[in-house]
Amino acid sequence: MADPHNASDAHAHDDYVRGSQEISEQAATFDLFMGLAKWGSLLTAVTIAFLVLWFQPGGSFIAGAIAAFVLLVVGVFALRKKKSH
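The chain above was modelled as a monomer; its predicted structure follows.
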């Protein structure tokens, strides 16, 4: 097993220091992905609820639209970014 304090290793001890690299681009990409996944999931759920209630036997456009709107409003309030203190 390699000794991390041995200077004869292939990599010098000070090549990498944990927490020293700039990660703003990675953080921005992660935030973008999470936002798209979150809001895309809400949009998918609203669309499925609307279509199921509209096209089921005995279903109606109005019932689907009302349920989709309610789900959208509740979802927006539940998924919006919380204020940090």
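The chain has a mean pLDDT of 87.
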